[in-house]
Amino acid sequence: MQEKSYKILFLGRMFLGLVFAYSGYTKLMEPVENFQGAMAAYEIIPYGVIPLLARIIPWIEFVFGVFLLVGYMPRVSAAVLAMMSWSFVLLILATRFMTGALPADCGCFGEGSLLHFSPVQVVCMDLINVFVGIRLALLKDHPFSFSAFFK
Amino acid sequence: MKINFRSIRVGILLTALLVTSVLVLRQHRQVPATKVPAAPVAAVPFAPLAKVKGPDNAPVKIVEYSDFECPSCRVVQEYVTELFKNYPGQIQLTFRHFPLTSHKWSAYAHQAAECMNLQGKFWPYHDILYGKQNQWSVALTPPLEFLTQSAQGLGANMDLFAGCMADVAVTREIYAEKETGTVVQVNATPTFFIGEERFVGPKEVKERMENAIRKIVGLPAKPVVVEPSTPAPAAPLAQVAAIPSAAGEKKP
To answer: Which residue, of A118, B86, B175, B202, has the greatest Cβ tally within 10 A?
Structure first.
């Protein structure tokens, strides 16, 4: 990988890490019921799993988002975040096709956060995230990272 | 395979640091409280009143945990009204406050509704709050003007209303009521209960609740209409399918 192309990927890494770290952080700072409510708006998610998912997802987003930012296990972190982005895309599309409607707010960030996207906007962003995440996961060396330091 | 213990140690430390920071920040984060006017009016003697609609001898007793700012709760009102229309005298509905902290003006709306409840005008006010949710919930500042004007429009005693809006005892009662929901593991709004059976969200209310009511009043189950998945569907999609009642399914 040439240094020039990594500069762009580095920006992608920062973007992906920041988006997820912020998303997880804002949710963790709020009562879990907020995120549960946001998930319940996607009517295809079984209610039984919502409480569990609402407790796990923000931690995964936050921890792996920060991991990617600082470059600790960047390949694994990028792969996890890419998978999460992809699952959000699938969730939004499946909800749209199965119920014919989408919630007004994607619920990706906490209610008190500065960012609020509609599901359509978030699908676009998540597709970019999937692309960046896969590229980062396939990349062997990640300069400016914890991993490089431990080599 | 060579294991890099130093890297693992750093990973564990990093994760511990992140988790600790979040937990500490969360504990020290200030939860915005309901604003109380600087010079509070004398508190209204407050005795919590149940918010009940429908006759006491109704065979179907429904309990609803709802948030005035939640869009799903607004949507579900249409179905509830329909149920009252279709089963006159058979249903009694008890409303319980479940203001979500994430909804910034929810606390104000619930306080106002409870204040109207004290004046025996809860249900018309309830209908205004849901009916005009799109107006007041998007306000950038607390929608006190809307809440006051709506109360005035219903002929409320405005001195009592103003005093009640500043009464912390009312706020406390609202959150005590919310707590009764938390105890029975309400984790999303709206949540309805008929006895032990739980219905969460408009979809469950629409698809299952009517048949639960019919079962209690001794009527045969109604076939459930499967909604088309696209806005302009072809005719075969709008089929009617009889879905067996699934009591206990999807319970959180």
So the answer is: B202
